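Review form for a predicted model. The reviewer records the input and the model, then writes brief findings.
Reviewer: anonymous (R2)
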Amino acid sequence: MERILVVGVTGAGKSALARALSGRLGLPYHELDALYFDGPGWAVNGSFAEEVSRFSARPRWIVDSLGYPEVRDLLWARADAVVWLDYPRHVVMPRVVRRSLRRSARREVLFGGNRETWGGWLSREHPVWWSWAQHAGRREEIARRTRDPRFAPLDTHRFSRPAETAAWLAAL
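Model under review:
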């Protein structure tokens, strides 16, 4: 495993696992949301696709995302392993709610200097609503991609419970 995608729904723990794998395996970690959003108002980085293309051409990396649509196929084609946090809603939703409550209450600075706000909870784009709405579709897309012949060489590690993921990580 030299080029790894850590995938799953919003709130599954992709970033935390990617950071842990980065430290364990000595792989450069790229947080895709931090590359995608580069300014106030959730401004999108105009050179995002070029930056992803550049780092993903290197022999070693780890990314914490399925991939934004403009780079999704590129990342999947260049990866050699996928770690899929395929957790059910009853595992993911409490995590994403707690994270968003913490971020809103503490006014934590996120990507591009942005913050989750209390008012943002009313938007369909808010992580809690996004995770709920996208759960089934995201699972279907990841399953389809892991079976897609274009990505056949991928070594796929699929975990349905956090305890399975923790045991696998500890055994690395």
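Findings: The chain has a mean pLDDT of 95.
Further findings: The chain is about 50% helix and 15% strand.
Recommendation: see findings above.
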